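Hi, does anyone understand the following?
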Amino acid sequence: MPVKKSERVQEIPLSELHPFKNHPFRVVDDEAMQRTVESVAQFGELAPALARPRSEGGYELVAGHRRMRASELAGLETMPVIIRPPCNQASFPYQAYSTRTELSPYSSSRRGD
């Protein structure tokens, strides 16, 4: 996910990040998640998540739900996030899907594949 010149990566407290309501994937605490937690604990979060501001405060996470969970389990308090302004909500499931390189059967079943 390329960062536009007008955007910047910000460290956002995990407590201010809220899941995208219609996120098409389940986040599972499985062996793959444990490997991600170990990596995050050792190296930190290497790729920023994508979020948009919520009218009630905080940010709605569009992409990076697994990274957020791994950060929580690793004991981090913040994670790098790119904040983008709200746009057509119909595009968000595609954005979230396009950031996934590996889908588990659990994740796909949530989408209906």
